[in-house]
Amino acid sequence: MPLDVPPHAALIQVDGLTQDYPGHRALDGVGFAVPAGSITALVGPNGAGKTTLMRCLAALDPPFAGRVRVAGLEVSEAPRAVHRVTGFLQDIFGLYDGLTVEQGLWHAAAARAVPTRDIPERIAWAADAVGLADRFKQKAGSLSRGLRQRLAIAQTMVHRPRVLLLDEPASGLDPESRADLAALFRRLSRDLGTTLVVSSHILAELEDYSTHMLILREGRVVRHAALDASTGTPSRTAAVRLVLRLAAPCPDLATMLEGMSEVRDVDVWADGETVRLSLEDGHDPARRAALLRALVARDVAVCGFDLDRRNLQDVYLDHVRPAATARPTPGKGHP
Ligand SMILES: Nc1ncnc2c1ncn2[C@@H]1O[C@H](COP(=O)(O)OP(=O)(O)OP(=O)(O)O)[C@@H](O)[C@H]1O
């Protein structure tokens, strides 16, 4: 089976993945494709199936049903080959407390079949990447919680895997280390072309470096989208999302907006004074100015008009909150 996938193809391809625990279906027909070199934020409520999915991607648990391919390898047919091209940081990880940082990294590199002659350079690189170069001779058992986390990350990446799967990698890290970790992920993606899948409940952090988001809920994919590099929210072709504030409700506004060919996905909030919409080619300021002129010409009392700067957390909550409190009905008033 080939190790390489064609350029620009999906490095991870999942189809119809179903995974059961005794008496419980943790993943139910999950399917998605992850582009090479991307950083995917894997998010979802507690128990959504994130860890179960990562274990399947890491070829630790064979799928109950469906297919999982990583770097062109079928996980159920070639798990050991998948282990060589992936690095997996589990949410609860173990370290050999009696080994020094250097020994632990050496062991991890040798276990992942790094040639002996390359190991000194690799472990120096990995230790430096996580800021542990000055602790080479310190035993893992004497490291603080955050430093242990950093060592575990270094061990996960020491063989320079093509795919890095990280389950809650920032837990236990101080703010400076979290920022360093975000920078490291960006470097791995940019300089080495590493494909990363990162699970975390801290959405603001994921927003900092993720190129894609995958939302799981009750074992199913409820959203998988590329993120807009400027806003960190799902991108939609050339349209941008705008938010309008009105000084007074305008009863026919939804109908008026829906009649404009360049406007779609109109949401009017129940107060009648807040409106969200998508404007085709709205990245162009002239397009936005034209829409504002058209509204004012029709006597709509616009007192606020701006890009809708919803963040990753807003998008996430839209998809995981119970339906009754979720998104407004397009074009209709809602509670
Ligand atoms: N070994 C197991 N035996 C039985 N059920 C399990 C087992 N491991 C996980 N589950 C169940 O499968 C579902 C998915 O669990 P999983 O750990 O994948 O969720 P998660 O999204 O990673 O959650 P969290 O955000 O809390 O870490 C949960 O309902 C969980 O209780």
UniProtKB/TrEMBL annotation:
SUPFAM superfamilies per record: P-loop containing nucleoside triphosphate hydrolases (SSF52540)
GO molecular function, one term: ATP hydrolysis activity
Name assigned to this protein: ABC-2 type transport system ATP-binding protein
Domain ABC transporter: 12-243
ATP-binding is among the record's keywords: yes
UniProt KW keywords: ATP-binding, Nucleotide-binding, Transport
Record has ATP-binding as a keyword: yes
InterPro entries: AAA+_ATPase, ABC_transporter-like_ATP-bd, P-loop_NTPase
Family: Belongs to the ABC transporter superfamily.
